[in-house]
Amino acid sequence: MQHGLSAEHEELRRTVAEFARDHVAPVIGDYYEREAFPYDIVARMGRMGLFGLPFPEEHGGMGGDYFALCLALEELARVDSSVAITLEAGVSLGAMPIYRFGSDEQRGTWLPRLCSGAALGAFGLTEPGGGSDASATRTTARVEGEEWVINGTKSFITNSGTDITALVTVTAVTGERDNGTPEISAILVPAGTPGFSVGQHYSKVGWNASDTNELVFDDCRVPRENLVGEQGRGYAQFLRILDEGRIAIAALSVGLAQGCVDESLRYTAEREAFGTHIGRYQAIQFKVADMETRAHTARLAYYDAASRMLAGEPFKRQAAIAKLVASNAAMDNARDATQVFGGYGFMNEYPVGRFYRDAKILEIGEGTSEVQRMLIARDLGMPA
Fold first, then answer.
1. How do the domains of the chain map onto residue ranges?
2. Locate the Acyl-CoA oxidase/dehydrogenase middle domain: which residues (predicted)?
3. Does 127 qualify as catalytic in the annotation?
4. What is the pTM of this model?
5. Which helix (H) or strand (E) segment is 111 a member of?
């Protein structure tokens, strides 16, 4: 096992860290307060090649790997999670299904734009009555002539309503299997297709500078060739996408957890109470030490899951472990950092206030902590 990054990965990490510090940190608070999508920051990320990190050059990508994406997400989330989740969802949920399962024509049409960051893709899985039970899909798609006709509603969909959203890949029931269970397929729906509309824009607790919407499909018609992968394999395909995405969310969570350490170290060196800097008090030192321990342990977990994935080894359990440990670390560190800051930690103008608001969704999105425990237990051989 190697404890250090390769020269290429270290250079990427350093570059993204500088970008986050110099171009995101000074302005993101204003976007957050206004609940505005940071188009200029996203455009800069596109020019840096961040949206193309794990994709081959032949598709307009950077020729890197999934671990490179995770490193970028960690460094961005050390400063802001809204920007980080925009990248994570755009790559692992928007572009990756097309790369993994799409036809040559679909890859050629969509991936160059998605890899450049000029366009964003979204992942239409969750439904109002589904939540963690992603198999309980109610959206339907039936064939009429040479078209799919889609009807249904999706909820909590990231990157689905921006001015640069180009497509949503939607899961829908397309039939029934011999055993009576629904056949679920994935279908690509371009933005602007008649019958496809962006519903309510959610008022969220956190991630306020990211885009999250409800999507409505009302007799939405797309060509039959917009099927992504095999008919009836949509649910299985997206389980694979979610396994990968959990590693990315773990990396984002580690970034938030480490950002809490960064901010606490800075603040404890400046803030004085009872005649000395608060960093001299053992109670504060122990709290920050625990925060660093959580971030370090969670980082090792996502490094391990990513390395197994890239080696072609089974990684489902390790991805669930990484997501569970890292999201817990993010939530615990955000709470402790807010306590270190005291009243200032409750103010949105301070990063830890945003960290605290952003942390909770990490224990929910892309599989709740309870789902991660279920996956781990089943992979250990316990009964389903």
1. 7-120, 122-232, 236-379
2. 122-220
3. no
4. 0.95
5. helix 104-116
